[in-house]
Design a protein that fits this description.
This protein is mainly α. Helices cover 50% and strands 12% of the residues. The chain has two domains: 1-35; 49-171, no CATH class.
Length: 202
């Protein structure tokens, strides 16, 4: 009779302990869902903020320093995407423009000010000399610095993904003045990414 009473009490204690654990798990899950829902509502309202107004107003809430540089008639717009390895993800933004932007030095990168004027005697000498490779010393070099950046809000930014994103953006991309070379470089990079992806699968 005593053994049955002990077993009954132990089963009752085990059931009560499991009930407490389940209740704690439900409370924690409800709190996490509330935080995620609050985060989603925050970013949803941020993106919907004055959707028909110029992007400068939206950029004032994200990065006021760059908002003062952009003009309302420059034809820019913002795009958003999620990044990071865990939830909540980091919301990244990038600035695009519809207006034609021309980098004059990108298609004529030679340093013309450093070149010397050739005389007729120099031209006669140059006829009998084999052409050498182009010396690109002092030429204009363009670097693409407009990458995906996290929204500057310390309460909702994942520090690890932010540091990883900033490290990736710190590696400047090489920009060649010739469009054909740029297209070949993009195709080679796409093939390299595909090879890495296939190697990870197999």
């Amino acid at each position: 009779q005593g053994a049955k009473c002990i077993q009954r009490c132990w089963r009752r204690y085990s059931w009560h302990k499991a009930y407490i654990n389940r209740a704690a798990s439900r409370i924690q899950e409800a709190w996490r869902n509330r935080c995620r829902r609050k985060l989603y509502i925050f970013y949803r309202d941020l993106i919907r903020f004055r959707e028909g107004s110029p992007p400068v107003d939206l950029l004032k809430c994200i990065n006021p320093r760059e908002a003062s540089i952009i003009d309302a008639f420059s034809g820019v717009h913002l795009r958003f995407r999620f990044g990071g390895n865990s939830f909540p993800p980091t919301v990244l933004y990038k600035i695009f423009t519809h207006a034609p932007v021309t980098d004059i030095c990108s298609f004529c990168p030679r340093n013309y000010a450093a070149q010397q004027d050739f005389t007729r005697r120099d031209e006669e000498k140059a006829r009998n000399v084999t052409p050498l490779a182009h010396d690109m010393t002092g030429w204009y070099q363009r670097w693409e610095n407009n990458g995906w950046r996290p929204i500057a809000d310390r309460l909702f930014v994942d520090p690890e993904s932010t540091a990883r994103q900033q490290k990736a953006e710190a590696q400047q991309q090489w920009f060649h003045y010739c469009p054909k070379v740029r297209r070949q470089a993009r195709e080679a990079a796409a093939k390299q990414r595909k090879r890495l992806w296939m190697s990870q699968i197999y």
